Amino acid sequence: MMTLASSLLGLSLLLCFIRLVRGPSVVDRVAALDLMAVIFSAAVAVYAVSANQPIYYDFVLVLSIFAFFGTVAVGRFVERGDVQ
Amino acid sequence: MRDLLVQALILLGTIFVLLSSLGMLRFPDIYCRMHASTKASSFGMGCVLLAGMVHFATIDVISKLLAVFVFIFLTAPIGAHILSRAAYTRGLPQHQAKDGATVAPSKTPSGKN
Predict the structure, then answer these.
(1) Domain for residue B103, yes or no?
(2) Which of A54, B6, B86, B101 is deepest in the core (most CB within 10 A)?
(3) B100 in a domain, yes or no?
(4) What's the Rg (C-alpha) of chain A?
């Protein structure tokens, strides 16, 4: 069961990575990276249930905060025209 | 019984995250991709966190997971809004439907702040 969930999340990471490589604009790439951060935190949350260790949810919280700040920062830069 | 509920919630959340990244790959323009990546992935993440709440069921884990839940459901629309506004300001093209029912992005947005 946990193997199935982990393989589905790995497939999701692969699909997002294809969009990250192929994305026509920088906004597509930033959106793909944001979704990859969400998928990775979901994988860590699944692993926390699988390993019966709730300490890993701290990592989920910190990763969500960093992904949000990175998305906001790059979105602001793109909107002001600093990044092509 | 509780293990079955935990596994069903994890499987549901994982499938929604997979559908979200499939939409991220297959949808035609950036606005549709933001639609796919934000809603489905935050719902899937919520299901996975709910599975953790059911599995551990102690007050400290539930409060921590509730914090993560609220944070994700607050920040996912904000991030999608900022990225979509950046794409609209830069004039990224929208997907042209078969019947031509689309709105062209304006080259001079009204609110530039």
Answers:
(1) no
(2) B86
(3) no
(4) 15
